[in-house]
Amino acid sequence: MEKALAQRRFPIRRAASRDTRLIAKLANMAGGDTLAFILRGIDSTAEATPTYRQMAAEPTGIYSYQNCLVAASGSRIVGMANAFPARLIEREIAGAVLTEREELLRPRTELNDPTSFLLNNIAVLRSHRRLGVGAALLAAVVNEAKQQSFPSVTLHVWADNTEAIAFYLAAGFKELGHAEIPWHPDLPHTGGSLLMTRPVGFERDESVRRRLATVSQDSADERASTSA
């Protein structure tokens, strides 16, 4: 019921090219610290948001607006989810020479299930959290995976992001693997990264619905970000 009400109040649609500025802002909220970590290994003054904006504006690529869903309140975008077939990650990095910091994060990418639909980023504006927007976006991603005949949805989440982990567990996800990430003074996470999965055909029973209602529906900076 809560999810249906949120979907009516904050309708979800496919992103358009005109949405790239807000997509970049929301993507930065979800995974900007990780992207900034990578970028600053090349340029110590680099910022994540302009890079997200450039990638989101492209017609192709994993961060393209074409791989995003947005939640709206009137004419304003209040939430975003970036999701795509996980196998696209392998295609993007095939033959690429990774930087030292990308190599450090490689264990996360190596956990990927190429048969799954990967939720890369999900974020909701602070002003619209705890209103069901995140849960509605997550449901839309699962539905998109179902329409494209994927057996499961997967996501990466930092092991120290306990609020987001609780949200995903309540939504029916479970841990599929754990990537050990070496400590680095510029990486604001410890404990490594989890790969979580949920079967697309999974239907929440009453006990799961109650669990989801007890956790923050739009946990601060829900992170489900790959290594860019």
Rg (CA only): 16 Å
Mean model confidence by pLDDT: 88
The largest sheet has its strands arranged as 1-2-3-4-5-7-6
Number of individual domains: 1
Major β-sheet annotation:
7 strands, mixed
Outline the low-pLDDT stretches.
none
Count of separate DSSP helical elements: 8
H/E order of the elements? HEHHEEHHEHEHEEH
Give the helix/strand class.
Answer: alpha+beta
**Helix percentage range:** 25-40%
Work out the strand percent: 15-25%
According to CATH, the homologous superfamily is Gcn5-related N-acetyltransferase (GNAT)
E-strand count: 7
Task: Compose a concise summary of this entry.
The protein is of the alpha+beta class. The chain has eight helices and seven strands; from the N terminus they run αβααββααβαβαββα. Strands 1-2-3-4-5-7-6 form a seven-stranded mixed beta sheet, sandwiched between helices.
Structure description:
This protein is α+β, with helices and mostly antiparallel strands. The protein has one domain (2-214): 3-Layer(aba) Sandwich (Aminopeptidase). Helix content is 39%, strand content 21%. A seven-stranded mixed β-sheet has the order 1-2-3-4-5-7-6, with helices on both faces. The N and C termini lie far apart (35 Å). The model has no long low-confidence stretch (mean pLDDT 88). Residues 10-201 form the N-acetyltransferase domain. It comes from Candidatus Afipia apatlaquensis.
Tag the structure with descriptive keywords.
single chain, 228 residues, alpha+beta, Aminopeptidase, Acyl_CoA_acyltransferase
